[in-house]
Amino acid sequence: MNPLPLFFREEKKAALECLLFVAGGPVTVETLAASLGLSNEDVIELALELKKLYNEEGRGLQIREVAGGYQMCTRPQYAHYIETFLRPELPSLSMAALETLAVIAYRQPVTRAEIEHIRGVKVDGILTSLLNRGLIKEAGRKDAPGRPILYVTTPRFLELLGLKDLSELPPLEEAADVRE
Fold first, then answer.
1. Are 32 and 16 spatial neighbours (Cβ–Cβ below 8 Å)?
2. d(CA 14, CA 18)
3. How many C-beta neighbours within 10 Å does residue 41 have?
4. How far apart are CA 38 and CA 43, in angstroms?
């Protein structure tokens, strides 16, 4: 069955809203444009209109630019209610896992040995845990003796932190101030 063409702006916006609702995660502009038969520019304009609409009406849902795409998600101020209702998907990360994840986020691509040099401890088990949770991934091998595996963060990492891309990470000095 062929979809009906989208002629009217409100229909296009409603169709985009449907895709963002069922996606369950960030969707790139290119994927949205291809699915709707629209240009990338049209999708960006419609997404911004939806974002504005949700913000103006103070709904529990919002449209975010995240991980290189758009996502429909809940507002942070209602997180407690959602956590109570759903229970957390992942148990919280240990301090060691958070430190390792921060090293990878700021130094990527980075090898296990480089992470261990910075942290001063072995991180084999932590890397496995972060890989299993989909927060990091292997990204090839370093052109060095032994050709060690390089690690980078994933779009899931950006999604969980609510970041559009890595440029939104706080500067290291600012991050250090927060810890103190």
1. yes
2. 6
3. 10
4. 7
Summary mean pLDDT of the chain:
88
pLDDT tens digits, 123-158: 999 999 999 999 999 999 999 999 999 999 999 898
81 neighbors 70 (Cβ within 8 angstroms): no
Q: End-to-end distance of the chain based on CA atoms, in angstroms?
A: 59
pTM tops 0.70: no
The whole-angstrom separation of Cα 33 and Cα 46 is 11
Residue ranges with strand state E in 36-162: 61-66, 69-74, 110-111, 136-141, 149-153
> With contact defined as beta carbons under 8 Å apart, do 96 and 102 qualify?
no
